[in-house]
Amino acid sequence: MSSPSRRRFTPPSRGGQVNSRGIELEGTATLIEGFNVRGAYSYIDAVVTEDPVSVGKAPTTVPLNRFALWTDYTLQSGPLAGVQVGGGVRYVGSTFGDDANTFKVPASTAVDALLAYTKDNYRLALNVTNIADTRYVAACYGYTSCFYAEGRKAIAKLTYRW
Predict the structure, then answer these.
(1) Sheet holding 83-92, edge to edge
(2) What pLDDT sits at residue 16?
(3) 112 forms bridges with which residues in the sheet?
(4) Is the pLDDT of residue 1 over 90?
(5) Which sign, positive or negative, has the C-alpha torsion 147, 58, 17, 100?
(6) Is residue 79 within 8 Å of 95, Cβ to Cβ?
(7) Could you tell me if 150 and 129 are in contact, meaning their C-beta atoms sit under 8 angstroms apart?
(8) Helices then strands (H, E): number in the chain?
(9) Closest CA to 60 of 109, 101, 92
């Protein structure tokens, strides 16, 4: 009786290995009391190195560039002391939508905002992401599996710290 043949199965997508090189920078600064700036940048050059379909190609959902900038200001004195306003922008570069790199998902930008008030141990905050309600494709995993990013979302939060 002969034994069944054995073959190693490697799925055509999400298999293999990826080599990535790049740089990530992040910084935070307080320019004046109560005024903060935060920024982050990533450059990632990723290439599939071992896969039956996509050797030498960029992996799906991995942008070459990604950038974020956030600023906020908290009033330090007067009747509105403790009121904080903030805003930021997030950018994600284009990505490939399939393992063979036959189409690209366009780059996207979203704007976020914050309004908060802190008094003693209490903090009331309203965060709004994608404030313009921009509709964009966040990722694709082939021609038939694309997903939109989340639309505008507002979250109110009351916190007590002891």
Answers:
(1) 17-32, 35-50, 65-74, 83-92, 108-119, 122-129, 153-160
(2) 72
(3) 88
(4) no
(5) positive
(6) no
(7) yes
(8) 0, 11
(9) 101
For residue 42 the two structure tokens come to 């990533």
Write the pLDDT tens digit of every residue in 46-104.
999 988 778 899 999 999 999 999 999 999 999 999 999 999 999 999 999 998 999 99
CA 117 to chain centre: 27
Q: Is pTM, for the whole model, over 0.70?
A: yes
Strand ranges for 6-98 from DSSP E? 17-32, 35-50, 65-74, 83-92, 95-96
Query: Is the pLDDT at 4 greater than 70, yes or no?
Result: no
pLDDT at 6: 44
How far is 33 from 75, CA to CA, in rounded Å?
A: 9
Name the residue type at position 119. K
